[in-house]
Amino acid sequence: MDSFFALGHGFLVALEPSNLLFATVGVLLGTLVGVLPGIGPALTVALLLPVTFKLDPGGSIIMFAGIYYGGMYGGSTTSILLNTPGESASVVTALEGNKMARSGRGGPALATAAIGSFVAGTIATIGLAFLAPLLVKIAVGFGPWDYFGLMVLAFVTVAATFGSSPLRGLTSLAFGLLLGLMGIDQLTGQARMTFGVPQLLDGIEVTTLAVGLFAIGEALYVASRHLHNPEKPIPIKGSLWMTREDWKRSWKPWLRGVGFGFPIGALPAGGAEIPTFLSYATERKLSKHPEEFGRGAIEGVAGPEAANNASAAGTLVPLLTLGLPTSATAAIMLAGFQQYGLQPGPLLFANSPDLVWGLIASLFIANVMLVILNLPLIGLWVRLLAIPMPWLYAGILVFAAMGTVASNPSAVELAILVVFGFIGFFMRRYDYPIAPAVVGLILGPMADAQLRRSLQMSLGDPMILLENPGSATLLGITALALLAPFVLKGLERFQMQED
């Protein structure tokens, strides 16, 4: 019952005119960047961080969440009409959605994606509202050793989940952890790795790293491989609305997609890619029309899109309750919380209930806004695909530089931004994931503080990490998550040699 009352109060907060305006701007921006290939919600939120540092914290975070949800909606448009997934989670949607568009059924494909996203987003947000308080009650009893174990688990799972190999993910994470050690040590007051530069005494700004790696790096990477003859979107033919048969074939995949997306998204090693592939494989097995798969089966669009959006709500569970980001956008949103002096975790629900429950309630409102915006305005979103890439990314470069200078007017900060931009370009060029670096910078100092606190309480005995059941369990899971990819790869090589 407490959750019902808290959610009711959250709706009062979310329905304030200023917060409604933030939510509207967020979903519009999110849909726009979801439609444009190569620009995702993580990049957009990173760009807005330095611009919004003086705005209302609650409204800004509502806008960031709206961008996250909107990006999931908009990503289906390019996947279906252009066969170019804006996000890795939209890859599966392109398999059947683009085939439907080529056979003249682009309208129903977009409709089942939008309605499925609405259904999944609403159910998953209900799950977030009622699961989050239960996790908070568990997390309140955590000691510093438990938090350290949890953060080490987050480091390893994020590094293993993102990128083409665990080793590259761990390398990116190590880069972020190294940056997190720069600045004045909070315990001893000594400067660490500042190289005599006074501006580095406060450490590396998360916003500068995020904007540099995501925005500048992406712009440079796109410029380096710009295609002179980009693929043109497929025009929508016939009716946009679904037939009775389409509804009949879509509603079960929508619900099954929620069943895959929300629980996996809520795991520390979650993400949207795994549930979308699981949903597609399940629908292919359960379909009464298996012959249509590979040629435009509507179930292959409905299920993965529902799983995609449900995982977005699931990702917010560990972010809000434990302060653990499990996706690139969640990592940037965590930086947004910290920008306003807020630390997601159990105490956030006690210290800032208006902000938390207003955010959760705004997600319901954002879902309604998105389904209203996506279907009638689909023609407008398609026209956005005609924007020339050089104009788009030149604007991103200018906006990124202006935002960074506005939040921290320093030539050193601008130089650091440019350096991170080139590092982001080379990380993309050589297929190193970016999200682990941002997670390392954000969570690294926190893990350092929790480890030191644990050692202080045990008078320097590191065995306290293994003597407590919670931290021992988490570190054991971490060891399995770290070793499993290498063991599996070794077994594959062994089997190939035998064959």
Strand order of the largest sheet: 1-2
How many strands, what sense, and barrel or not for the largest sheet?
2 strands, antiparallel
| Radius of gyration, in angstroms, nearest whole number | 22 Å
Number of strands: 2
InterPro entries: DUF112_TM
Protein name: Putative tricarboxylic transport membrane protein
Pfam families: TctA (PF01970)
Organism: Aureimonas phyllosphaerae
Features:
1% strand, transmembrane, 499 residues, 2 strands, single chain, two-stranded antiparallel sheet
Topology:
Blueprint: H1 2-14, H2 17-35, H3 41-48, H4 57-81, H5 91-102, H6 106-139, H7 144-161, H8 166-180, E1 183-184, E2 191-192, H9 206-224, H10 244-266, H11 273-286, H12 299-322, H13 328-339, H14 346-351, H15 353-374, H16 378-383, H17 389-407, H18 411-429, H19 435-457, H20 464-467, H21 469-498
Antiparallel strand pairs: 1-2
Helix pairs in contact: 1-15, 2-4, 2-15, 3-4, 3-9, 3-13, 4-5, 4-6, 4-12, 4-13, 4-15, 5-6, 5-12, 6-10, 6-12, 6-15, 7-8, 7-19, 7-21, 8-19, 9-17, 9-18, 10-11, 10-12, 11-12, 13-19
Description:
- The protein is an all-alpha fold.
- The chain has one domain (about 1-499).
- The chain is built from 21 helices and two strands.
- It has helices at about 1-15, 15-35, 40-50, 55-80, 90-100, 105-140, 145-160, 165-180, 205-225, 245-265, 275-285, 300-320, 330-340, 345-350, 355-375, 380-385, 390-405, 410-430, 435-455, 465, 470-499, and strands at about 185, 190.
- The protein has a two-stranded antiparallel sheet.
- The longest helix has about 35 residues, at about 105-140.
- It is globular, with a radius of gyration of 22 Å.
- The mean pLDDT is about 80.
- Keywords: Membrane, Transmembrane, Transmembrane helix.
- InterPro entries: DUF112_TM.
- This is Putative tricarboxylic transport membrane protein.
